[in-house]
Write a structure and sequence with these properties.
By secondary structure, the chain is an alpha+beta fold. It has six helices and four strands.
């Protein structure tokens, strides 16, 4: 009789422990799992960032905070890069005198003179091989540039992409101003600041620019 009672007691204890273990595990999973509605909301927010971004060329007389500059640079270096070469170099410019000279060096970047921040994105040729992959750096720094523009817009900043490469004249002028070595090629000047007025994004969707499976289909 005593042994039967002990067996029953052990079975009950085992059931209680199992139920408690299940409840703890289930609650832990529910706490760490992202609800579907939140996931959709986050995706919608990111889509809105992309679709509402526009080039901004006029800025308030207000500095961009260091922490936001840091986020711009981190976003840039999170971009995809062929064979993980990361052939980029970023020159951050906030000094008014250099910003004005940078505007003179780039005819299409006159707004730099009145902006609080510019980032000159360069290709670092010391990280590239002299073979068929040598021009992949163009795609890498382009991806990094777009990351920065999107990150800027998500933080309430305005930004615009102004080209340097492949203009030899612009590249030489910017290189001379920023004293870059020969293996550093200025690619673009991204200009940032707090917008002085609301910007209106363009609807660039065109179904005729899309083919499925084969060109023209």
């Amino acid at each position: 009789m005593t042994s039967k009672f002990l067996i029953i007691l052990l079975c009950v204890a085992l059931i209680v422990v199992s139920v408690r273990l299940y409840l703890v595990t289930n609650n832990s999973c529910q706490e760490t799992q992202v609800p579907m509605s939140d996931t959709l909301s986050a995706n919608d927010d990111f889509y809105d960032v992309i679709m509402s971004r526009a080039s901004v060329r006029s800025y308030l007389d207000k500095s961009v905070e260091d922490e936001k500059i840091d986020k711009l640079l981190h976003a840039a270096m999170a971009a995809p890069t062929a064979m993980d070469k990361r052939p980029w170099h970023f020159i951050v410019v906030t000094e008014k005198d250099i910003l004005k000279k940078l505007a003179d060096a780039s005819p299409n970047a006159k707004m730099v003179a009145t902006a609080p921040l510019a980032v000159v994105i360069c290709g670092d040729m010391s990280k590239e091989k002299d073979d068929w992959t040598k021009d992949f750096w163009i795609q890498d720094v382009s991806a990094a540039s777009e990351n920065m523009l999107l990150q800027a817009h998500s933080m309430g900043l305005g930004g615009v992409w102004t080209a340097i490469w492949p203009s030899v004249e612009r590249g030489a002028a910017v290189s001379s101003l920023l004293e870059t070595p020969e293996h550093i090629i200025p690619f673009a000047t991204l200009v940032f600041g707090y917008p002085s007025s609301p910007s209106q994004p363009k609807d660039k969707w065109d179904e005729f620019n899309v083919s499925y499976e084969l060109y023209g289909e």
